[in-house]
Amino acid sequence: MRWFRLAMVQMNPTVGDLDGNARRIIAWLKEARKAKADLAAFPELAVTGYPPEDLLLKPRFLKDQRRALAEIMEECRGIAAVVGYVAEGEEAHPKSSRPMVVPAGRHELYNASAIMADRRLAVSYSKRYLPNYGVFDESRYFHPGCRIPVILLNGTVLGVNICEDIWFPEGPSRVQAAAGAEVIVNINASPFHVGKSRLREQMLATRARENGVILSYTNTVGGQDELVFDGNSLILDQSGEVIARGRAFEEDLLVADLNMDAVVRARVAQGRKKWLGGKRATLADRVVISDSYRPKARARAVPSQAALLDPLAEVYQALVLGVRDYVRKNRFKQVVIGLSGGVDSALTAVVAVDALGPANVLGVFMPSPYTSRESHEDVMELVGRLKIPLRTIPITETFDCYRRAMVPSFQGRPADATEENLQARIRGNFLMALSNKFGHLVLTTGNKSEMSVGYATLYGDMAGGFAVIKDVPKTMVYDLARLRNRRGETPVIPKRVLERPPTAELKPDQKDEDSLPPYPVLDPILKAYVEEERAPEEIVEMGFEQETVTRVIAMVDGSEYKRRQAPIGIKITHRAFGKDRRMPITNGYCNL
């Protein structure tokens, strides 16, 4: 029986840390060699991290990346490897390939995979389908590839392609399978959003079945600014059944023995060719890699199948990983959070503690004249359960000073939202002062519902370095809080926090619903308008009142200038504010 052992390295690179990424790749490569794998597959752009963005415009960065790749290649012996990197010019497309037209002034770069063995680059494959939507800007930097190699390695025919390539039925996988590929190795940097892992798995199963190939999908893992990569790497057999699944939101090494005889039988039954050699390989370039380092004896590898998380658990893990990596990769040690006694700041604090540990999370309670006894008690109970340090800084005296200072300017005008916002801005100043003095990163606590309609204070509660729940609707905030409370024997978030009507407590007896529709009404409207781009009349047809829809849309459209100045936050929905949704601030188009 013919077997091929594949190792998939689900690793967490750091964008721009070329030396660090190279060390991690080499270390994982050694682990794969210990496992006696024929081939180790690493994620898309593993050397540079994803997305490298305008680092790619720096010639020195590209030079340093070539050096890092050479160091990896030097360690690639006794095993073959597929490593994501940036290819340049002729390296990716030799003169024998179809010529490329390069626009004037642009450097010819490719999102590529290096297929290496015996300390050399055997062949390079460049991504053909470049995503340029949502969070992706690959056409800004890369040219599409035109060479489609198939590789003969240790008696098995492989096709290698990258991320978006696998989503197209008529893409490189079809060409490679037609040229005899039995295994497709697809490497990825596919960012998380709710529901994507299941959609991805369904697509991959379809692609494996329709091409009659074993399909491996190696995804990166980790946080990069607002993006979180979930891992969930997969190997599926020729019938679309899952052979192995990597862990979610964790680094992982998957090793699986692939039954190539089963693939051959399936391909013969489907009337497919096993291998098209010589002049018949017209659909793809053929590359033969030496069989000399195939391990002589090895016990059968038992592949692991990590369980798929339910969607809400996925979101929570994405938030934890996003916070941990943003803090760690940007070399912060501790974070500071303003605690109000509400559910948003409570959830943010719990996520931060799970990500960083209680000793690295500082809570700050800043009561005003309108802060209730219940809020004070709930903050004390929360920090007691989380075991985090708390600093209490009353703002009443400072608030009084501000109001007295503004009397000459405000004379004759009644109190309004201006005085409410003064309190939020005092709190923002205090948090930023602690950040400046001690080097803590300020985590803001605003949710997507508030950010959508502008129910937030510019330079106040929006002031900070990282917005943990910026893409989490308010109704989901409650769901996540309840999910976290079900873990362990004692709920971490006090019950009353989940039961009290949400309030900013910036004036007497204030409730969020004084200014906004109830969140169970608001959130579906926001999803329809912001994430699904539905027209106002379509949203009304969903069963919402015309007046409410008109009001919400006006608030969303009028708050773009605020959102543009907000800190970045973790993407968890299909369409987040920022890179996903880019609206002009100066905008004369009326949606109503």
Structure description:
The protein has 2 domains: 3-289, Nitrilase/N-carbamoyl-D-aminoacid amidohydrolase (4-Layer Sandwich), CATH 3.60.110.10; 311-512, Rossmann fold (3-Layer(aba) Sandwich), CATH 3.40.50. Helices cover 35% and strands 18% of the residues. The chain has helices at 18-34, 59-74, 172-178, 196-211, 260-269, 311-329, 343-356, 373-386, 396-410, 417-438, 448-453, 474-485, 495-499, 519-531, 536-541, 546-557, 560-564; strands spanning 3-10, 39-41, 80-88, 109-117, 120-126, 149-153, 156-162, 183-188, 214-219, 221-224, 227-230, 234-236, 242-245, 252-259, 285-289, 335-339, 361-365, 390-392, 441-444, 466-467. The strands form 4 sheets. The protein has a 7-stranded mixed sheet, covered by helices on one side. The chain has a 6-stranded mixed sheet with strand order 5-4-3-2-1-14. Strands 18-17-16-19-20 form a 5-stranded parallel sheet, sandwiched between helices. The longest helix is centred in the last third of the chain and has 22 residues, at 417-438. The chain starts with a strand and ends in a 28-residue tail after the last helix.
